[in-house]
Every structure is written in C-alpha cells, then in structure tokens.
Write a structure and sequence with these properties.
With 262 residues, the chain is α/β, with parallel strands linked by helices. The chain has ten helices and seven strands. It has one domain (2-254): Rossmann fold (3-Layer(aba) Sandwich), CATH 3.40.50.720. Strand 2, helix 2 and strand 3 (54-58) form a beta-alpha-beta unit. Bound molecules: NADP nicotinamide-adenine-dinucleotide phosphate (NAP).
Length: 262
C-alpha cells in the first residue's frame, strides 16, 4: 500500500499539509518528536477522512540513529512511498558566534542532512510514481548575516533538490522546493511578522494558503515555488540587488533580533 511521509507533521505548515493530504485520500506516515502530539494528530486526520490509513513515529531528525530506526521500521512494514513532504526545520536566528556546537549540528541535520537521508530512503522504497515536496524558505535565496546557518541550510535544499531533479528526469518523480516568505504559524513567528510592519503584512500568508498553492505547484512539477505575489516580487528585486548592499540591509535588520524556539 502506498504512503506519504510528512516530517514536521505537528508544526504549523506540516499539520495543514497533513489535513489537505488526508482530505485528498492520501495515506500518511507522520513524523515529529512528540508521540502524544502525533497520536492526537492521527485521530484528528482520521476524523477528516476515515478512509485514509495513518501511521506515525516519533523521530529526532537531528539523530542519525533515530532516523535509521525510522527507516528500519518503515521497511519492515513494507510501505511503498508515493510522497515525501519534508517540512521539518529549525529557524534559530542569531549571530554565528553565539551558537554552541550542539545547536549547530542540530540545525544543520534537521534542516538539510535528514532531508537528504529521507530522499535516499524514499527513492529506494518508492511506489511507481513519487512526489517530493521540500519546504525551504525565501531565506534560502540569498546569504543572510545573523541568519547565516538557516539561510545556508535552506539554500542547500534548493541546490540539492534541483540537482536531484535533473538526475531523476523521466523516472516519474516530481520535485518541488517551496520557498515561503512569512507564514503565520508559531506565536513567536506571528509576533515577528507584526514587528515587521507593512513588509510583514504584505509578505504574510496563512499555512492553508501556502500548502494549497504548494500542492498545486507540485502537481505541475514546478521546481522552485515562492508562495504569494509580493514574495515573488521581493525575490526578484533581491536577485538584481548587489550582494554588498543586501548584506548591509539584512545585517542591520537582524543584528539584534535573535530567535531560538528549539
Ligand atoms: N513560518 C514561516 O514564516 C516560515 C517561512 C519560511 C519557511 N518556513 C519553514 O517551514 C517549515 C515549517 O515551519 P513552521 O513555521 O510550520 O514551524 P513549526 O511549527 O515550528 O514547525 C517546525 C517543525 O519542525 C519539526 N522539528 C524541529 N526539530 C526537529 C527534530 N529534531 N526532529 C524532528 N522534527 C523536528 C518540529 O517538530 P515537533 O512537532 O516535534 O516540534 C515542527 O513540527 C520549516 O522548515 C521552516 O523553516 C517557515
């Protein structure tokens, strides 16, 4: 039987994606860190569509052991994977010198390395057709001082999945890299968006908007998708702005705005 893996399933964007996928009749494997939250989510999704099959597993994506245990479990179940939705991510933002070693490893692994491991797993255990959606960020479109690890890991997702898509051409695999601007998910993110004033107002999108549009982009096999017209215009302006200017603006904006929710 075919299943779709969603990492970050209990988070703001992940949960919305799970709801849409369940309503669309897709069987799901939910990945998150908290077993109780995963169990509650599976009940909620079943109430939306009793016909879908839901399995879940608590996995720490920062731990290679935990990820490998997850793969063994899924292999034993003989699930065929028709979709990978890699949503999990850590958006810690602070000067690099303020990080400790453990946090550097954690953010790198959750944001990028485990996405690569999951891609390998789903390709080895794929159904006839496979869809991969990975949630990067508009922050992955340019290097960002004081957000440098986050933007680098999100940029790595763009490079890796673009390259992979080239390798898998003609093999019935659709790949879309989603680069959202501001999405109204966690309380601290909503506060952060409010503090950005007009820019935040224009950039912000609901998880529902982002997920619905991104699923459509995946259906069309769009490679990089930026949800929202304003965010696409900003990305275009950013592309033609010389980096030294951008770097100064970004550094000034984020120098004293730390966040660390994980
Ligand atoms: N919100 C935005 O403005 C925005 C903008 C651009 C991109 N994004 C990206 O969108 C994705 C979802 O963000 P969100 O706003 O929905 O935030 P969120 O609610 O905080 O979701 C993040 C998810 O990542 C999971 N996660 C973190 N560390 C993990 C670990 N060690 N092992 C397993 N799972 C882990 C969390 O799992 P638990 O359920 O176990 O906590 C959570 O479900 C992220 O990749 C983020 O970078 C967000």
């Amino acid at each position: 039987m075919n299943y779709n893996i969603v990492t970050g399933a209990c988070g703001g964007i992940g949960k919305e994606l799970c709801k849409l996928l369940a309503l669309g009749g897709n069987n799901l494997i939910l990945i998150g860190r908290n077993e109780e939250k995963l169990s509650d989510l599976s009940v909620e999704l079943k109430s939306l569509n009793a016909n879908v099959k839901i399995d879940y597993m608590a996995v720490d994506l920062a731990s290679e052991n935990s990820v490998m245990n997850c793969f063994s479990y899924l292999k034993d179940k003989n699930y065929k994977i028709s979709g990978l939705y890699y949503v999990a991510g850590i958006d810690t933002r602070k000067g690099f010198e303020k990080y400790d070693y453990a946090k550097l490893t954690m953010q790198s692994r959750v944001n990028f390395e485990s996405a690569v491991l999951f891609s390998k797993f789903v390709l080895e255990n794929r159904a006839n057709e496979l869809k991969i959606m990975v949630v990067s960020s508009a922050c992955g479109l340019t290097p960002m001082p004081y957000f440098s690890l986050y933007s680098a890991t999100k940029a790595s997702l763009i490079y890796f999945f673009k390259g992979l898509k080239g390798e898998l051409k003609g093999k019935k695999v659709k790949i879309t890299i989603v680069c959202p601007g501001s999405v109204t998910t966690r309380e601290d993110i909503i506060e952060d968006i409010k503090a950005q004033g007009l820019q935040g107002k224009l950039s912000k999108k609901s998880p529902k908007f982002v997920c619905e549009k991104s699923l459509k982009a995946l259906e069309k096999n769009k490679t990089v998708y930026i949800p929202g017209f304003y965010n696409r215009v900003v990305a275009l302006i950013s592309k033609v702005t010389p980096y030294p200017i951008k770097s100064r603006i970004i550094a000034k904006k984020f120098k004293n705005k730390e966040k660390d929710a994980f």
